[in-house]
Specification:
The chain is globular. The protein has one domain (2-195): Rossmann fold, CATH 3.40.50. The protein has helices at 18-46, 67-87, 106-109, 124-139, 146-158, 172-181, 184-195; strands at 2-3, 9-10, 49-54, 92-99, 111-112, 165-168. Helix content is 54%, strand content 12%. The chain is built from seven helices and six strands; from the N terminus they run ββαβαβαβααβαα. The protein is an alpha/beta fold. The N and C termini lie far apart (37 Å). Strand 3, helix 2 (67-87) and strand 4 (92-99) form a beta-alpha-beta unit.
């Protein structure tokens, strides 16, 4: 089973309504839980199965104006890791795929928080910078194609002993390596350079 439903919600935390945040969690997090709970009895009965949860590099690294979206992905990471221990005795494997920038239509399906696009928002300039960075990455010829993610999923589900986590995309492994090797302040400066 591959859990891949989701959308992005752009906006600073101050500009997000509780309703917008709840809607983000309903799709990106609770949707995964609902589908997984329906499938688990079948997988347990057959004593096998693989659950692939599409997270994001944003499930392990925060960036500005995506706090709600990335919170759902951080939550998905914790859920998946905990679930992997619960399900291993039943022959069920859990895999987390963490794409970086992938050339998809995510910007078309993303939502801007209502207050975030208000000219009175103190975060409007920051919002525009991050949005422009994302749009430029989608237009960048070096940004990975969706097939990269499909190939990582295929590798994971056909592996005899899959890893818990896989990165996908040209930038994903680089970002995760930087996060592991840099101090918080060094990594924070890198994020600021990229997005601000």
């Amino acid at each position: 089973m591959v859990n891949n439903a989701g959308y992005g919600l752009f906006g600073s935390l101050e500009d997000l309504s509780i309703e917008e945040i709840k809607a983000q969690f309903e799709t990106n997090f609770f949707g995964v839980i609902r589908v997984t709970q329906k499938v688990l009895p079948i997988m347990r009965k057959q004593n096998s199965g693989t659950i692939v949860n599409l997270s994001s590099v944003g499930g392990r690294v925060g960036v500005p104006v995506l706090s709600a979206y990335q919170s759902t992905k951080f939550a998905l990471e914790g859920l998946s890791e905990s679930l992997s221990y619960e399900l291993e005795p039943f022959g069920i494997r859990v895999v987390i795929v963490e794409p970086g920038f992938i050339r998809t239509n995510i910007m078309n399906s993303s939502i801007m928080a209502k207050k975030a696009v208000d000219r009175e928002s103190p975060y409007l300039s920051l919002m525009q910078k991050v949005e422009n960075h994302f749009k430029s990455m989608m237009d960048n010829p070096s940004t990975s194609q969706p097939e990269v993610v499909a190939n990582v999923i295929l590798q994971a589900i056909t592996s005899e002993n899959p890893q818990l986590r896989y990165t996908a995309g040209n930038d994903a492994a680089t970002v995760m390596q930087a996060r592991k090797t840099m101090s918080d302040s060094e990594f924070g400066n890198l994020i600021k350079q990229q997005f601000l």
